Predict the 3D structure of the following.
Amino acid sequence: MYNAKAFAAASATSPLASTTIARRDPSERDLQIEILFCGICHSDLHTVRNEWGNVNPTIYPCVPGHEIVGRVIKAGAAVTRFKPGDIAAVGCMVDSDGACPECQAGLEQFCPNLTFTFNSPDKQIGGVTFGGYSESVVVNEHFVLRVPSHLNLAGAAPLLCAGITTYSPMRRWGVTKGKKVGIVGLGGLGHMGVKFAHAFGAHVVVFTSSSRKKEAARQLGADDVVVSRHAGEMQKHAGSFDFILDTISADHDINAYINLLRRGGNLTLVGAAPKPLAVAAFGLLFGNRILSGSLIGGIPETQEMLDFCGQHNITADVEVIPIQKVNEAYERLLKSDVKYRFSIDLASLKSA
Ligand code: NAP
Ligand code: ZN
């Protein structure tokens, strides 16, 4: 075991503050990674504040962060794909049983013995796992991804969650050229959704509650932008979408979007609002519409997504911050005041 500097929340109402955590020494299949950048996902905020407490209570101290890019410091003897000095990335998962049908299918996120990057029981050293708001992390090689070498590392970090969470459902539901696709909520996930849908050749419409984001949405690749509180603008798109990705992090009227689907169209929910959403049956019945969900993506698809980003030069638009600004960043995230992802430069932790 060794000590690593980190930022943790001591309770649901405490700000994140500097602390020291224990990490395991790398075993023969592990990589020890010096963390360079870690994105701030809204899931970090939900977890730190225990907003999902009824489903997955937060264990404190909580060190969040699952959009990690870093440099390999040590590689165990049985590691085959990485060596010290390599750039490596870690997303939302750090371990699974490797044997169950889900793992065999490359859908590790559904393994019954999955260990999430933070706030999961730590099967190796006990206690709870600690995430990327930290100077280093030790991870089994299977859960370590390759980042195409020409991508900006601060902007690549958010691909590990916001990227795969939006890429995966669009691939699954056949978002391609000629399809009309809606992206609801222009935050960290939403702006990646726009970039991918545009890269897949779809006609992309952004739905935002913030009229000030209209122009920026077009620059990201949107063909049209609708301010969601304008009922007339919404109505113009009734019954027309093949696919809608809903990334909203809070309570909202999902029926307003279901009604925009064409017959047989699909709305996939990736936003994880803490309270249940009310769904009107008739919105689904009329038109044989489909409401579905999607959870991040498996390791093989995450690597596919990173390679796609390499080919198409896609990264997140980030505001790079020192770790000392993390509490301010959370307040701004709650006000949808970030274009479009905060990425923490962990070099700042040295002076924390
Ligand atoms: P984010 O950057 O805060 O973006 C959420 C966006 O939702 C905001 O930018 C805002 O967009 C819109 N929004 C927020 N509150 C709203 C409200 N009250 N009414 C209407 N719109 C509202 O968050 P994120 O990191 O993209 O994460 C989004 C959600 O996805 C979170 O709940 C997160 O936990 C979840 N998530 C799920 C997965 C998964 O595997 N399914 C993975 C990662 C994250 P506008 O300003 O454009 O309206
Ligand atoms: Zn996330």
Notes: The chain is about 25% helix and 25% strand. The CA atoms of residues 50 and 58 lie 5 Å apart. The chain has two domains: 2-161+297-351, 162-293. The first helix runs from residue 42 to 48.
